[in-house]
Design goal:
mainly alpha, about 150 residues
C-alpha cells in the first residue's frame, strides 16, 4: 500500500469479494469484507489528510518526525476512531440528518462492524442487512463515495 490510491484499490477489491460471498449466501464473510472496505477507504483518506503517501510503510516514513505516532494511532480497526482521524466525524454527524445513506451507515456499519466480526458464529448476519450494507457501500451516493468526496 504505497499511496492512498492503492489503498482505495484494495478497498474496492474487498468490496467486490464481499459481493461474491453475498451471492454465494455467505453473509458473515461478506459482512467482514464489506466493513474492511470501509476501514481501508477511511485509512486512504487519513493518508491523504496527513499528506503521507506511505503511511503504512515503516521503512519509507521511518525518518519523518511524528509518523510513528500517527501510524500507531491509525493501526486500529475501530471505524469511529478512523472517522475521527479522517477529519470527517463532525461532517458525518451533521450529514446523517440530511443524507439517508449516512444515517443507514451509522447503524449497519459504524455501530455494527468491527474486526471481531470474523470470529462471530455463522448466521449472525441477516441477508437483508447484508444486501442493504452492500448497496450502502457500493452506491455512487453511498458511504465509500462520501468518504472519498469529503
Amino acid at each position: 500500500m504505497i499511496n492512498p490510491q492503492s489503498i482505495r484499490a484494495i478497498a474496492r477489491q474487498r468490496l467486490k469479494e464481499a459481493v461474491v460471498l453475498y451471492n454465494e449466501r455467505m453473509f458473515d464473510g461478506a459482512f467482514y469484507l464489506a466493513g474492511y472496505s470501509a476501514e481501508l477507504t477511511l485509512k486512504a483518506k487519513i493518508s491523504e489528510r496527513f499528506g503521507i503517501p506511505n503511511l503504512f510503510d515503516e521503512a519509507a516514513t521511518h525518518s519523518l518526525p511524528g509518523i510513528r505516532d500517527i501510524r500507531s494511532a491509525v493501526k486500529t480497526h475501530n471505524l469511529i476512531n478512523l472517522l475521527i482521524f479522517s477529519g470527517l466525524k463532525n461532517k458525518f454527524e451533521e450529514g446523517k440528518a440530511l443524507h439517508p445513506a449516512l444515517a443507514k451507515a451509522n447503524g449497519l456499519l459504524f455501530d455494527a462492524w468491527n474486526e471481531k466480526a470474523r470470529y462471530m458464529p455463522c448466521g449472525h448476519v441477516e441477508e437483508e442487512d447484508m444486501r442493504n450494507l452492500l448497496n450502502l457501500l457500493s452506491n455512487h451516493n453511498g458511504i465509500l463515495a462520501w468518504i472519498e468526496q469529503n
